[in-house]
Amino acid sequence: MDRWLARIIDAQGRWARPLGDFNQRWLSALFRPMPVIRDFLNGRWLGHPLHAVLTDAPVGILFLVIVLDVVGQRTAADVALVVGILAMLAAAISGAADYADTDGNARERATVHSALMVVALLVYAASLAVRASGGDDRTVATWTSIVGFLFLSAGAYVGGDVVYVLGNMVSRHAFRGAGAKWIALEPAELDEAGDIPEGRPVKAKLGINTLALVRQGETVLALHDACAHAGEPLSGGRVEGGCLVCPWHGSRFRLTDGRVVRGPSVYDQPAYTVRRTEAGGWEARRRSN
């Protein structure tokens, strides 16, 4: 069944791809001048994507609406519907902040997800309007809330694919071991004096890992090269205010310890200690959290 559903979702690419590109442009333009608000909506302060926290609330509340309708608790069902719609709007706002920095297949599926959620929201609004018009017959109000929940469930399924299948907003270092051994470090570039160039990121190999190095005087600072947010190479970024800035989405990580100081990443970056070897080269190991 999962393959059948995946084919249905993928078939929406004809309209989802151009719509997603359009939405990403205006959302990026909207959130770019408001980094503090974007960070709040991404969940950097929480250390966890905020959208994932908020989405459970409307699903539970709007299922409760159906239960209350069926058992004849009209006032409670109507109140729950209003709260559920507000919860959907809160989740949508936080999701829009994530969407602004979502690329590729994840953006395409996120577009399908958001479209289904908008349809669900419109159906719920229609149900609320029917309830507000009064009358003793609640059949239409009940059935519209059921139809709305079906769209909500479909949207939640596609949204789950964005996270669990495509790994959007998942830390790229979730399964990376800390390691305790010193390993030979191989910078991809050296200056005329045979040293690591100073003041800008330089890519380097550390066993199976790739690091981004920044030399400041005699100190070499190192972070993992793959950004925790979407895997982009930090060695292609820039150094600014003691941070390494991601070249794709602008996440900022403190060079001294890898702490994220600006999103869209909500996860810290693995940091490494670098030292000289007796032979004149370098070696490094990952720092403990």
Keywords:
289 residues, 2 domains, 6-stranded antiparallel beta barrel, 4-stranded antiparallel beta sheet
Produce a short descriptive summary:
With 289 residues, the chain is α+β, with helices and mostly antiparallel strands. The protein is built from 8 helices and 10 strands. The protein has helices at 2-10, 13-31, 35-42, 50-54, 56-70, 74-99, 104-132, 139-164; strands spanning 183-187, 202-206, 209-216, 219-224, 238-240, 243-245, 252-254, 260-262, 271-276, 282-286.
Could you say which structural class the secondary elements and strand pairing correspond to? alpha+beta
Q: What's the average pLDDT?
A: 92
What would the principal axes of the Cα set say about the shape?
Answer: elongated
Into which percentage range does the β-strand content fall? 15-25%
Using the CA coordinates, give the radius of gyration: 24 Å
The helix/strand order is HHHHHHHHEEEEEEEEEE
- What's the end-to-end separation, in Å? 42 Å
Q: Provide the low-confidence segments as ranges.
A: none
Q: Mind summarizing the main beta sheet?
A: 6 strands, antiparallel, barrel
Proportion of helical residues:
40-55%
- Number of beta strands: 10
Major beta sheet, strand line-up? 1-2-3-4-9-10
